[in-house]
Amino acid sequence: MSSNPASNCTVTPAIRAKITAKIAHCIQLAERYFKIKLVVPTFNFKQRGRTAGTAYLQTNEMRFNLFMLKQDCEKFIEQVVPHEVAHLVVFQVYGSRPKPHGPEWTAIMEHLFNVEADRTHDFDVPSPKRLFIYQCDCQTHEFTAHRHGRAKRGTQYLCKRCKGHLAFVRAK
Ligand SMILES: [Zn+2]
Ligand SMILES: [Zn+2]
Q: What is the pTM of this model?
């Protein structure tokens, strides 16, 4: 599945506000149900790689994957945000005993948040970075496509160790 350009988005203040509102809504539902006061989690976009999001129980923080958010903002906010909030609600209500995707988490997802309790998400993962091998007098170096482009356009790169010029060998 490739991403649909029409649904692409960046983290605008409006998107941040939508995420914040979704979190607040989920927390409110949980507070009403469990009849306790919950601490609203914070969020950032530090998540990388194949994971859509991670909930950090001790710091009450959620890390979201910007690459996946950009593919489909609506879907991400509808599915990934409640998924991670549910982990933090489980922790605040039950402590660290329940399994990550156990019955407590599933019940919160399906009965409170009304979201299908899938353990994972079907977002595309970032394609592996293309790398280019360069050589000096002492070792090989790996260049990103960006750096390789600059080298091709004439930027001279020197090895920090031997001070020799780096010459292109091959694409990795
Ligand atoms: Zn999870
Ligand atoms: Zn060198």
A: 0.70
